[in-house]
Amino acid sequence: MSEIEEFEAKAKRYFGKNVTDRDRAIFEGAISLGAAYHQFVGTPISKDAKVGSMLEKAIEKTISLQPYIKSVEVKIDLSKLKKGSHPYDYSEVSGRNLQIKLVSKYRKSRVYMGMSFVSELDFPLMFIEKIEEED
Question: Are 115 and 98 within 8 A, CB to CB?
Answer without folding.
Answer: yes
